[in-house]
Write a structure and sequence with these properties.
Elements (H helix, E strand, L loop, with lengths): L10 H29 L9 H13 L4 H11 L3 H34 L7 H13 L7 H32 L10 H20 L10 H6 L1 H11 L7 H26 L8 H29 L4 H22 L14 H22 L4 H24 L6 H25 L10 H26 L2 H14 L8 H29 L1 H4 L16 H18 L5 H24 L6 H16 L12 H18 L2 H6 L2 H6 L3 H7 L6 H11 L1
Amino acid sequence: MLTSVEDLKDIGRLIDDVQSERSHIAEKLSLVGRFGAENGASTGATEDVDDMVDKAAQEISEARNMMDVARLRHEYGDLTILRELESNFLRETRRIAEEDEQNEAEQMVHELETLQTTPGITQLEKWHARIQSLELLPENAVYRALTEKFGALVQEKSATQQQLFEKLALDVRWDSSHFQNDVDDVQNLNEMASILFRLDILAGHTPESDELWSFSSMAKSFHLKFIYLFNNQVQEQPQSIQTYFAFLDRYLAHNLFKCIDIFSNPEIGLTPEMVLRNLINHILHPIRQKVKSTLMKTAEQDAGESLKTLIVLISQIFINDNSLLKKHYYDGPGLVSMIPSDVMDTWLTFEVRSATSQVEKMKQLPLSKSCTDFQILLENLLKYFEPFFDLEYPPFMEHKLKVTNRIFMGLPGSLCDHILNYSGDNMISFENEAQFKQTVEKLQYLRKVENILNKYQNMLPFVNQTVYLNEQTNSSYPTVFSDVLKRFSKAIITVRESIVHRLKKLISANLRVYFKINEWARLTVATDQPMAELLGTVRSLQDLFNYMTLHESVRDVIFCVQNEALKIIIHFMDDYVVNLNKFSQCGLEQLQTDYSALRETLNMNPEQSPYNTEEAAFLEKLRILELKHIGSEDSSKFLSKAYIEGQSYAELRTSLEIWHLPDSQIANSLYRAL
């Protein structure tokens, strides 16, 4: 309690004393409550409290480990003193463990420093396991010294082992046709490679590491051969680039699976898959260096031969990486990742310029020649770019789209405009037939290129590009070729309409003399041959449609043109012959013969008649005109002014099967037959 003003100076200490006393009293009350509950005593029975507290204090003072603390906590509850005691025991346990590990580390350092002989791989693995079991912090001086000494020992062991392994590998020439596949040699090679791989693991090398001692030694023979063959070249040439990629492919073809058979040891992790992946990865090291130096040299030099070398190098990288994946099943890091984006831009510019130049030369050729050449060019370009398109390397997706856009869409689009505008040499002097045939050639050209693009759009590389494009632009294009295919579709419609227009002009010009015939009503003899005035038209149309039929690629368009041509013939025959003349029976028969002759020139199926509604109506009109020459009771009834003026032709329609001709034309035809 405060007894004077001076006590205010110690107010803080007094408050702490009171709080401590309260805690002490609370613990006593807790013990009292616990003892009372266990002994059935009332809350007022406190005469034995001091004895019980003394007993608890004695037991707590005798606690020596965590098990004692757990027992006391179960008996007396979660007392503060027990928590403190537990914390002390934990600290002491950690201190002892750290001291033991420190002693263990010091002992191992001493063992490593006093080695008399080089330890074997088994002893090294035992030490490694002991080091791995230590929980000392990396900054611990003894632990750091231990790991450094152990690492140096592993490094020294690996250097010795590599020398032995590489000497044996060179002596037995395992990667040559001279290898005898001796059982002892194979076993020794496998054991040495396995030891090196176990040393890799002790050194902390992972299977994904670029430098594994075991595989560096396996690839040593290839490195020596590669250096001997190619490292003396001062200037890289395109042919030398192709040569060392070809050398790599031959080496793997002859030795890859032999290597897997010799060096696999799944028990320690040297699975066939790992041997394949890491052998190729390590064999690629000298080629990576070669590629890097070539890229640097060509980038520093002017265009010309160096640019040609660069283009060949990049193309060979694409081919090589695809060959490694498809032929040798290698899915590790290839060479394509070494190509900088600006170098890819240079490559793309060159390829576009080269392909465009070829197309511009084709535009100077006749259509038939350039059509064939352009198809060949497209197929060759696809084969050329196929290794690039097949690469699974996301950073180059934009360049893939650019190749497709500028070459496989841009060049056909440019050619589409050229085809539409093409007029040929001296087109002003061309006859109508020549113009017609050239227009058919245009149609064939457009359709063949369109067919190629339709085929390309379903190929996996272009499907992948479509998916990528839609994802990047939040679009829903059915194909990356959508725009250029629409362009060709419109061009084909334009050319088809031009064919029909030229056909109409040609038929009109050829039938001009035929239309002047006015003797139909006086003809007394009908022949099974068309009239002389029609023979020229028949020959001309026959020639043109035979020419069209030769072009299988436009078969669907031919059907459309045939349909339109038939409509044109019917229109001319109806307007300029039937509606302007009267016919004797022979005249009507001759008209039907002439019409059939014209129809046959279209190469249409003769059994498919009528071919369209226009033909059906025309044939119905001819049947009405025939009524005049039948002389039956029905014909007399139908050919009466009263019947015609009655404007009810249901009976006539049923009798003559008239289903397409409107009433107005039925009336007109009946009047003409009077």
